[in-house]
Amino acid sequence: MISSSLEELSLTADVLIVGGGMAGAWAATSAAQAGATVVLADKGYCGTSGVTAAAGPGHWWVPPDPPAAREAAVANRIAAGLGLGEADWMYRILDQTWRTLPTLARYYKFGADDEGRVNYRAVRGPEYMRALRQQVLDHGVTILDHSPVLELLARSDGSIGGARGQRRQDGGRAYRIEAGAVILAAGGTSFLSHLLGSRTNTGDGYLMAAEAGAEMSGMEFTAAYTIAPAHSTMTRSMAYAFATYYDAEGHELDLPFGPDQTIRLARALQRGPVYCSLHRLPDDIKARLHTISPNVPLVFDRWGIDSYRDRFEVTLHNDGTIRGIGGVRVHDVDGTTSVPGLFVAGDNASREKVAGAISGGGNVNSAWALSSGVFAGRAAARLARSGKSRADRLRPLGRVGHQPRKGARTIDLAALRDGARAEMHPFDKNLFRTGQGLAASARALGHLWTELADHAATGTIASRETAALLATARWSVATAAARKESRGLHRREDFSSRDPGLAVRLLSGGLDQVWVTADGEAAGANTAQLETAS
């Protein structure tokens, strides 16, 4: 537990950004460019924390001319999204990404393609995030590194007016920021898969949004499993488009690259070890891989494996909402939520309207992080500077992990986190879903939640992270149980086909009592409802 006798640090700003990854950095820059005073609070170090800094992200990058190119890109995404995407949102994301990414050239040296043209689409993650940090600082933004936000603060009318947190490298000093508007850009969660760069991504933004009264959307689409070398968490999958797979006896497996490959690979892994060879990887990609995604070959270099000649064992990890699409329900592309004064961006926001029912992969997700950050930053600055966000006495909204219901006592938080992971990672529970299995997971997670809510010590970072993980897992399980069909990332063994009548978005929320309802119905309607385990 971090505690401190130091006097609380008090700051004020027009806009507070919670999270310093790609979306948070673009949001901070955008808000500052709109004339707002901005504070950015990051759980880690803005510029290195989050999954972007450890990757080589590409962006959804389609030129505006000829117009047919974007029309085709959007049409293809609409079809792939299986009824949950919206063309207008896609066009706006494409356009904002096209216009914004080149503006970083002052801070980042973009590469060139084979024809000598500047390649804006693909970036080197570590350098990209370092450039974004410098851009944020040059726009006068105050950055609080290693300063996790623990709870939001609300005005008497329910609008959001700031947040409280702790300064981990300042003796655990508490801080309080009053702001005209708050943007949650704290990332998603992989449910402790140890995905490179995801250590700080425990779903904190989801929990804080729910405590403020916001709804989640698309939380059933969290079974985003990605291949990695066994005994590693290097889930960077581009090279595996050219992979050949073998069983333990050396027999080649029929696992062609495509939308069903993950399912077929998972079933093969259930039967026994699976080995991979990348001997078919084109020479031009081999030559660039150390630059595009340096962490990918690093794993093999350390093991003394020639991945282009040797076979190596592989596995699948669940990347959760980081590669999935669930998150806080977004009312407009500018990141507004159902809670006045609260905006979301990046992985904190549901990507259904842009990605549909399938993963956005690297390119759509990166374009969404950039564009949603820019849009949310402008909108939050506009609200804060309009005078509509009035000064008022602020009340803290944090509940679980702050206010034990039956008295604080020592509980094993690590065991609770492991319990959440145990329901969200195994193939037979989360990838090959059944009604019976989901009901069992709901009961297990409910018991863990009750233990935490009843007894978690007040004011700890660990207890709040645990609450966020459990809440996110419960919403995911509840919406998966309610969606009695298979669609995109959501697969039901007992409802294996797609139901045309369920081409709707499912909303979820609630803490002690979880609810699920179709978008457009009243929150808490009887689509599905789970009681906290007693």
Protein architecture, described:
Strand 17 (506-509) and strand 18 (514-518) form a beta hairpin. Helices cover 34% and strands 16% of the residues. The protein has 534 residues and is of the alpha+beta class. The protein contains 15 helices and 19 strands. The strands form four sheets. Strands 1, 2, 5, 6, 7, 8, 15 and 16 form an eight-stranded mixed beta sheet that branches.
Draw up the topology in text:
Elements: E1 9-18, H1 22-33, E2 38-41, H2 67-80, H3 87-100, E3 111-112, E4 118-119, H4 125-138, E5 142-144, E6 149-154, E7 160-167, E8 173-184, H5 204-212, E9 216-217, E10 225-229, E11 244-247, H6 261-271, E12 274-277, H7 283-292, H8 295-303, E13 312-318, H9 320-323, E14 327-328, E15 342-344, H10 352-355, H11 363-385, E16 395-396, H12 413-424, H13 427-431, H14 435-455, H15 461-482, E17 506-509, E18 514-518, E19 528-530
Parallel strand pairs: 1-2, 1-8, 2-5, 8-15
Antiparallel strand pairs: 3-4, 6-7, 6-16, 7-8, 9-14, 9-17, 10-13, 11-12, 12-13, 17-18, 18-19
Helix pairs in contact: 1-4, 1-11, 2-3, 3-11, 5-15, 12-14, 12-15, 14-15
Quick recap of the structure?
The chain is 34% helix and 16% strand. It is α+β, with helices and mostly antiparallel strands and 534 residues long.
Helical proportion, percent range: 25-40%
Radius of gyration: 22 Å
What is the count of β-strands?
19
Low-pLDDT windows of residues: 524-534
Sheet with the most strands, sense and barrel status: 8 strands, mixed
Class computed from helices, strands and strand pairing = alpha+beta
Average pLDDT reading: 92
Q: Which oligomerization state do the chains in this entry correspond to?
A: single chain
- Count of runs of 4 or more consecutive helical residues: 15
The outline comes out as: globular
Q: What proportion of the residues form beta strands (DSSP E)?
A: 15-25%
- CA distance, first residue to last residue: 27 Å
